[in-house]
Amino acid sequence: MSTHVEATGVVKRFGPTTALNGARIAIAEGETHALVGRNGAGKSTLVSILTGLQRPDEGEVRFAGRPAPALADRDAWRRLVACVYQKSTIIPALTVAENLFLNRQSARGATINWRALRAKARDLLDTYEVDVDARALAGDLSVEQRQLVEIARALSFGARFIILDEPTARLDGPAIERLFTRMQSLREQGVTMMYISHHLDEVYEICQSVTVFRDARHVTTRPVADLPHDELVAAMTGEATAAYEAREHTPGERVVLRGAGLSLAGRYTAVDLTVREGEVVGLAGSASSGKVGLAETLVGLRRPDTGHVEVNGVRVRPGDVPAALRAGLGFVPEDRHHEGFVPLLSVGENATFPIARKLGRYGVVSPARRRAKAGELIAALDIKTEGPDQPVGDLSGGNAQKVVFARALVDDPTVLVVINPTAGVDVKAKQALLGAVEDAVERGAGAVVVSDELDDLRICDRVLVMFHGRVVKDVPRGWTDHELVAVMEGMEE
Amino acid sequence: MTTLTAPAPRVRLARFRDLTLVPVIVLLLVVGAILDPTFLTAGNLTNVLQQQSAISLLVLAEAMILIAGKFDLSLESTVGTAPAIAVMLVVPAAAGGFGIGLPGALVIPLALLIGAAIGAFNGFLIIRFQLSAFIVTLAMLIIVHGFLQGPTEGKTLFELPDSILYLGSAIWLGLPAAIWIAGALFAAGIFGLGYLRLGRSLYAIGGNIDAARAAGIRVDRILYGAFILGGTLAALAGILETGRLGAIGNNQGVGWIFMVFAAAVIGGVSMDGGKGTILGALTGVLVIGLVQNILTLIGVSGFWQPVIYGSIILIALMISRIAGGKAQD
Amino acid sequence: MTTLTAPAPRVRLARFRDLTLVPVIVLLLVVGAILDPTFLTAGNLTNVLQQQSAISLLVLAEAMILIAGKFDLSLESTVGTAPAIAVMLVVPAAAGGFGIGLPGALVIPLALLIGAAIGAFNGFLIIRFQLSAFIVTLAMLIIVHGFLQGPTEGKTLFELPDSILYLGSAIWLGLPAAIWIAGALFAAGIFGLGYLRLGRSLYAIGGNIDAARAAGIRVDRILYGAFILGGTLAALAGILETGRLGAIGNNQGVGWIFMVFAAAVIGGVSMDGGKGTILGALTGVLVIGLVQNILTLIGVSGFWQPVIYGSIILIALMISRIAGGKAQD
Amino acid sequence: GSGTTTAGGGGGGKVGIDHPRADSDFWNSYIKYVPQMAGELKVDLMPATNSQNDVAKLVNNVQALTGQGAKVIVMAPQDTGAIANTLQQLENKKIPVVTVDTRPDKGKVYMVVRADNRAYGTKACEFLGEKLGGKGKVVQLQGALSSINGRDRSEAFLECMKTKFPGITVFSEPTEWEGSKAASMLQTRLEQNPDVKGIYMHAGGVHLAPTLQVLKQKGLLVPPEDPKHVFVISNDGIPQEFEAIRKGDIDATVSQPADLYARYALFYAKAAADGKTFKPGPTDHDSTIIQLPNGLEDQLPAPLVTKENVDDQALWGNQVK
Ligand SMILES: Nc1ncnc2c1ncn2[C@@H]1O[C@H](COP(=O)(O)OP(=O)(O)OP(=O)(O)O)[C@@H](O)[C@H]1O
Ligand SMILES: Nc1ncnc2c1ncn2[C@@H]1O[C@H](COP(=O)(O)OP(=O)(O)OP(=O)(O)O)[C@@H](O)[C@H]1O
Ligand SMILES: [Mg+2]
Ligand SMILES: [Mg+2]
After folding, report:
1. CA of A18 to the centre of ligand 3 (A)
2. Are A194 and A50 in contact (CB under 8 A)?
């Protein structure tokens, strides 16, 4: 088998940060090649270099033995490689159809036939079983639907090399399955793929070989079959790491979070929910189940049509985040870019906004105390950053997620609501984040974990499964994957 | 797999969003007709269109640039400076020219070229040096106007070659040529931004410049094009205005830019880029033109006119907000 | 961790980014001193500071509003209208007043209150109705100026109560009071936006309004506060200017807003929100003031003055871009 | 001819009037005189329009006025070139035009009613030149250089200084009719040249208060006898200037006759509507009509007001209430 894509000696610096330091990768023709590494290891940076968005400071990229085209020649790059980037490349103000066929709406110079374009888009969406209206504005889609549109677009180019940078971080089980089926058939057609994910079991499921990056360098490249799970994790983290063990909790009697008679048109109907101190409650459900909408209502991001929310016995004004926070809530929103952090502000400021009033008197925020507090959080959550003063916008995706987590935990909340808490977070960090939730619960807090990932739900004492906007089942600890998925898919009442 | 949102009505709404000002226009037509019998005559409405034709070209240019996520304040200065410099290159020194004496037939191409050059220079500073478009074009507004005031020493140019007067004063098929020209350019704009890949890429650039770049759109080249086309349209607006007024005063175009923005934004073009249509911008121009005309006809006191005028802009803005259903930015 | 480089240099760089215009200021001081011996005298530099004190308050207000991701054009109209209406509430009808005859001591509080009210109304339209801040405040610029022109019928108010003249003309400890006032307010602004919870939340709001909301910041309340404070500062600027000029003309403040934006942006404040500092904005004001002073001293021809002036803004912008190292927006 | 009312009882037809701007004291006085004079002269006046110093608006307004049936147009085009086309169109429609304050460069006018702006500049120059004894430094606070009046005053002042008083250095400050700019520029100039002894202000309405404020701050607001006195001559003739002359703060002003502008603009408008014609030569109101290539011009007197004649009740500035 010949080498389809090869990068050697790649160095890329961003100011004082070295994102890639002599890294290399070689991907054989027709294989699906995994690239794994901890958050900030330089994976996405390599993607931007392999797709011609950025020029490496040093090193070389070759496609089928030929040097890569000039950076300005975007058409040549697009013929060579298609990509699902980690950062969204959807244009919210345009329709789904136009996003799918951006810059190829028509033949060069020809008039766009919108009707035909929509039909083509519908075909494409059908092929990939993406259930969105081609005419809808992309900005109105859910995070997940947007991701599906991006995937459909990347796969539709007919490129012989496709890169997928954490495509599944925002997808639920069935969507992931569909994606894998699709990738399988592409591979059968001889398409080469590079696949990035923090779900290592996915790597074993669909990839033939794997490259591990650590601290901006290449560590190893091996067939997946030769690399057991433990060794893979050890290669990524540089040390042996045991699998995460969920702990036992002893829920108390006090109810810390209550939702009573909550309904929101189009999202969920007649939901009652109580969380006691020391208890972790999961919220699960497949696409459009309404779980995210419900969780956002609990934290005050949405105002329900009916019903109310109590935090620590205090009835919180609906749709009022500050009131919920003051009542003792901490939360991690679904989309970190949207509601999670202010990119230009530092790690320290982003993490400490909810406790700013405690960092000094008379409305003054003491930078020294802020830095000290942020330092603690950085250490506790193992955030890879130059320090509390680095802007969050410069962090890698997973590390930015940890900053959002830090913000949720900073005020020692007695109620924690986390939505897809480990999206895009590496194995070790995932353990740190789930551990942080459990620590808080052991201190007497109650937690709600909303997630598409079964691993996250394993720490829950019970899982509420939603289907079409209703809570259909309360599943106690001890479920198997198969059971829970069956309930989520509505196959079992 | 059930998507709970009903997509169909949403899309239909989106299409009508271009036309949120149509009720306002109808209202203005009714109010105008009630307030003054002259208002609804063909003559008066033709006047309104003719009066708006020059400024409408600026709105067209600005809408395009705004959709691409940029900004150009200097257009208003180009309206005076481009035709003036072109004229001065052509007319003898006695008539206020430079005494170079290029042939009179060149005056329109020269003016358009000067407009294009100003646009290119703006683009150069903004794209190449990544400077703030607002401040670059603000400085250019001052500088370009200085290039009218400096060589003319503040004087009006009124001995103009016939060629530059023609377009702004001719009548074609019973309507002023300026109306035909503006109409044709708007039609081209609506078509170009609606049905050409080049036009659509302006939306992509304004909506998410990184995504546009990743999709293979030649962002820099297209932005240059937008600035150059914008400058050229502003020069053409200047030519039409020159023909309408018969001379080039030192204040030609000065103060237009605020109205241009107001027209574009109440017409649904976002200041943040990526949103709005040329048709919407056109309705914005019409609203502004009709309001001005009605205020003139009913003869509101000059002292209070600004208050009424500003209030009407606010009301139009609210209507466009309510009908459009989306927060503006 | 190989990527862990020492954090210290980065922070230091970031801190210096506020001061990218300092070399420009030094250059202007040197050039000025060479061109004219009067330039570097204490008297002249004091004059520059006094001349800039009123407009600097507008820059302070605008910088704050820009950092919060919003926009206020109407500040320039408040500069004239707030003190004028306050004066008219106080002076007798014979002196151009409304004949209400409130006590003269109230004139300053009244002016500040009017400024605050204008800011609150802007905030109401922008925050409550989610209208485009640019166009709302553009319409308000026109309307507020109409509220100066309407009641005065375009006349200058010459007979003013002493209280409103005091601040703009008094000398405290050998320096004009206006300089002390502007200095104190800038110091407060630098401290407030750097170290107060409220000030920091302006950055959060401007940087990502949804994240700010999710972090528990009372976004709407703080934005209202920014607009109200902005209007109040503009009214105070009007009071200082009134004292300096000894009368309130119909043009007071008109045309300032462009210079205000230029000063803020060359001083490093982003038009996109969330970026920049008050100290940076202050250096922007100083650059503009020194340029104006030097141009006056060397007596450049009035006709070409705009060209030179605009070019200097462009050059300052480039220096601030190169020294700052980041693309502007 | 003396064929008075020819048409029906309507008094000759409607007069449309456009005001140039509403943001200066002079024009405001003019605007207030207009309805008063219309009453006195029994002119059938349509509601006035205002072109806010924008010739494009003026053109639009004139179109609207003729559309509404104006038989005569009174206007004050601040841009005298760009109105040519409009005048041509009005001539085609046989609508006579009276212009106030400015003389169009091209296009037919029935009558231009104005005081000579160049004469203002010359008068100011002569006054200052004599007071300074032909030597020293003076500052001229210019209006906007893009306005014909500002330019006329400025050019005439400079020309006169050059020819009659070559020993005087003139500093010209372009203030764009803004008080703020005037104050800053004057302050800077006085810092640089503390020996400036004369100031010519193009517009009392906007320049008066700032100038006095700067002089006061510099301790230069002293009586004419004092050697530190700076001679100040203004332009406009508004009541506040008279007040300042009485107090000795400034020395003179050129009174621009706002009342006469309004009166004779309407007088000639009515005459035009009635079909009367005029010939060059002296008139019955202390003025002269001169022949222009494109019409006639009645050059109204613009008296120099000093301490001696400041209380003359005939001055319009003394009649404003
Ligand atoms: N534009 C940038 N400016 C500054 N630093 C950057 C930039 N992009 C990436 N970095 C830095 O480069 C390093 C590598 O980032 P990269 O995004 O490649 O990591 P990753 O392996 O994709 O991580 P994740 O798994 O979290 O997505 C990080 O330390 C990050 O902070
Ligand atoms: N901004 C929006 N406007 C209208 N409908 C929306 C919006 N966001 C989401 N929806 C729709 O509301 C329904 C419920 O969404 P919600 O996010 O609560 O469910 P979910 O279980 O989290 O779904 P997913 O797993 O796909 O995110 C879905 O059909 C979704 O498409
Ligand atoms: Mg990544
Ligand atoms: Mg979801």
Report:
1. 14
2. yes
Q: pLDDT tens digits for A212-269?
A: 999 899 999 999 999 998 899 899 888 777 777 888 888 888 999 999 999 999 889 9
β-strands D295-299, D111-114: how paired? parallel
Q: Say yes or no for a CB contact (<8 Å) between D60 and B292.
A: yes
Is residue A285 lining ligand 2, measured as CB closer than 6 Å?
yes
Q: How many A from CA of C329 to the centre of ligand 1? A: 23
What's the length of chain C?
329
Nearest to C200 among A321, A343, A356 (CB): A356
Amino acid found at B218: R
Residues 6+ apart with CB under 8 A from C24: C283, C287, C316, C319, C320
pLDDT, residue C7, reads 39
Interface contact flag, C302 D174, Cβ < 8 Å: yes
Alpha helices (H) along chain C = 7-17, 22-35, 42-67, 75-90, 107-123, 133-152, 162-169, 177-195, 197-207, 209-214, 219-245, 256-266, 278-298, 305-324
Q: Coil, helix or strand for D262?
A: helix
Amino acid at B21: L
Sign, CA dihedral B44-B50-B55-B59, equals: positive
**pLDDT of D65 above 50:** yes
The ipTM is: 0.87
Strands A3-14 and A58-63, by their bridges, are antiparallel
Q: Within its chain, how far is the Cα of A15 from the centroid?
A: 26
Residue A74 has pLDDT above 50, yes or no: yes
Q: Where are the domains of chain C?
A: 18-324
**Rounded to the nearest 5 degrees, what angle is found at the Cα of C159, between the Cα atoms of D186 and D316?**
85
Locate D173 and state its tokens: 């400050």
Give, as residue ranges, everything with CB less than 5 Å from ion ligand 4. A 292
Mutating which of A344, A355, A407 best tests the C interface, going by the most C Cβ atoms within 10 A?
A344
Reference B243, options B71, B87, B29, B36; nearest CA is: B87
Ligand 2 pocket member B4 (CB < 6 A): yes
Max CA pair span of chain C? 79
Separation between Cα atoms, residue D78 and residue A280, nearest integer Å: 78
pLDDT of C328 strictly over 70 = no
- Shortest CA distance to B112 belongs to which of B91, B71, B83, B80? B83
- State whether B302 and D80 contact (CB < 8 Å): no
Nearest to D79 among B156, B292, B296 (CB): B156
- Could you count the other beta carbons within 10 Å of the beta carbon of residue C44? 20
Interface test with C, best of A296, A345, A404 (most C CBs within 10 A): A345
Which chain C residues touch D217 with a CB distance below 8 Å? 169
The DSSP annotation for C215-245 comes to TT--HHHHHHHHHHHHHHHHHHHHHHHHHHH
Q: How many CB atoms sit inside 10 A of residue A189's CB?
A: 9
Structure tokens at B188: 């081209």
CATH number, span B18-324: 1.10.3470
Nearest to B227 by CA among B75, B55, B54, B56: B75
User: Across the interface, do B138 and C266 touch by the CB < 8 Å criterion?
Assistant: no
The pLDDT, as a whole number, for residue C325 is 65
Q: Over the stretch A448-474, which tens digit does the pLDDT of each residue have?
A: 999 988 888 999 999 999 988 999 999
Distance CA A445, CA A280 (A): 9
- The type of residue at A54 is Q
Predicted confidence at residue A103, as pLDDT, reads 87
Tokens of B257: 């830019």
Q: How far apart are CA A205 and CA A209, in angstroms?
A: 11
Matching residue, tokens 């989106």: B14
Q: What is the Cα–Cα distance from D128 to D233, expressed in whole angstroms? A: 7
Q: Which residue has the higher pLDDT, B237 or A431?
A: B237
Question: Of the candidates B235, B229, B255, which has an alpha carbon nearest to the alpha carbon of residue B64?
Answer: B229
